[in-house]
Design goal:
single chain, 16 helices
C-alpha cells in the first residue's frame, strides 16, 4: 500500500509541478522586504526609493503561470534545482553547457529524465544578476538627470525585484530536491509523502506563523560576490543539506497550522527566509559595486 501511495504521490507531483513555484505570496514578499533591511547605504538613492515596487515584484514569476504554452514550458524549471540529479557533476556557469553535460555525462539516461527535469535555478539567478550588473553599469554612464537614466532605473528595479523571487526559491529546501512535495526515496524515517508538504511549509505555515520581525534579526552580514553562479549554487546546496530537517519537523507536526506554533518550525522557517533575503541583498549590492568595473572581455559568437 505504501508503494502505491508513493507512486500516486509522484503522479500528482508531475501534475502539480507548475503550481509549486515558490514560497507562497507572503513568503516572497517577506524575502524581498527583508532584503531592503541592512542594505548598504552606498546604493543609489533611486533604488532605496523603489522599495515598495521591489517588494511587489517578488511574486511576479508565479503570476506568469498560465500565460501560454511557451512561457509555461520555460518558467517552471527556472524555480528549482533537483540537486540529487546533478550532485556528481561539476556544474558550469553556462546554462547551455550544463544542458550538454546532462547528456554527455549520462545523467539523462541514468535517471530517465529530460533536459528540464533537474531545473535551472542557479543559472537563472546568475543570469539575472549579471543582467542587473549590466543595467547598473549603463546607469553609471548615462547622463545625470536624463530621460535615458530614468528609463534605465525602471529596468533596474524590474530586474532586481524579479531576481528576488528566484533568490528566495534558492533558500527553500523544497526547491533543491527531488523530494519537493513528499518523500519519494526510501523512507526509513517515515517522512511525510502526502503531497501536501510543500504547501504546508512554504504557504500555510508562513502565512500563519511568520512576520517580518521574525526574519530581519536573522539576516547575515552583507557580503560581496564576484561569482554569481557559485554564490547561487552554494545557496541551493545549503538548502538541500537541510532537507531532512524540514521533513523531520513536518513529520512531527511542526508545520500544522491547527497546532500551537512550534518554536523549532518557526525558527527553521525564519532562518530559511532570512537566508533568501540575505542572498538577495548581497546580489543587489554586488551587482551595484561590480558595475563600476569594466565587463570581462569575451569572444562574441557569430550570429
Amino acid at each position: 500500500m505504501r508503494a502505491v501511495k508513493r507512486a500516486l504521490c509522484v503522479f500528482f507531483l508531475i501534475l502539480a509541478t507548475s503550481n509549486a513555484l515558490g514560497w507562497g505570496e507572503k513568503g516572497h514578499y517577506l524575502i524581498n522586504e527583508a532584503a531592503t533591511f541592512g542594505l548598504p547605504n552606498d546604493m543609489p538613492i533611486f533604488f532605496h526609493k523603489a522599495y515598495p515596487e521591489l517588494i511587489f515584484l517578488a511574486y511576479d514569476p508565479d503570476r506568469w503561470r498560465g500565460a501560454g504554452e511557451s512561457l509555461d514550458a520555460v518558467n517552471p524549471p527556472d524555480h528549482f534545482l533537483d540537486y540529487e540529479y546533478v550532485s556528481h557533476l561539476n556544474l558550469p556557469p553556462d546554462r547551455y553547457k550544463f544542458i550538454t553535460l546532462l547528456g554527455t555525462s549520462g545523467t539523462l539516461r541514468r535517471y530517465g529524465i529530460t533536459i528540464t527535469t533537474s531545473g535551472f535555478l542557479p543559472w537563472k539567478i546568475a543570469e539575472m544578476t549579471e543582467l542587473l550588473t549590466s543595467e547598473f553599469r549603463q546607469w553609471r554612464f548615462a547622463p545625470a538627470h536624463s530621460r535615458e537614466r530614468d528609463f534605465i532605473e525602471r529596468d533596474i528595479i524590474h530586474v532586481a525585484g524579479i531576481l528576488g523571487h528566484f533568490a528566495g526559491d534558492a533558500s527553500n529546501p523544497h526547491h533543491a530536491t527531488i523530494n519537493y512535495n513528499g518523500w519519494i526515496l526510501p523512507n526509513p524515517n517515515h517522512y511525510p509523502y502526502d503531497c501536501e508538504t510543500h504547501e504546508r511549509f512554504e504557504t500555510r505555515f508562513v502565512s500563519h506563523a511568520i512576520v517580518l520581525d521574525d526574519v530581519t534579526p536573522r539576516l547575515a552580514p552583507p557580503a560581496l560576490s564576484s561569482d554569481y553562479f557559485k554564490t547561487a549554487a552554494d545557496a541551493v546546496r545549503a538548502s538541500n543539506a537541510l532537507l531532512e530537517t524540514l521533513y523531520r519537523i513536518d513529520r512531527d507536526g511542526g508545520f500544522d497550522v491547527f497546532r500551537p506554533v512550534s518554536t523549532e518550525a518557526k525558527s527553521f522557517t525564519s532562518d530559511r527566509l532570512a537566508a533568501g533575503a540575505s542572498l538577495l541583498r548581497d546580489l543587489w549590492w554586488s551587482a551595484w559595486r561590480n558595475s563600476a568595473n569594466r565587463p570581462p572581455r569575451r569572444a562574441v559568437p557569430a550570429n
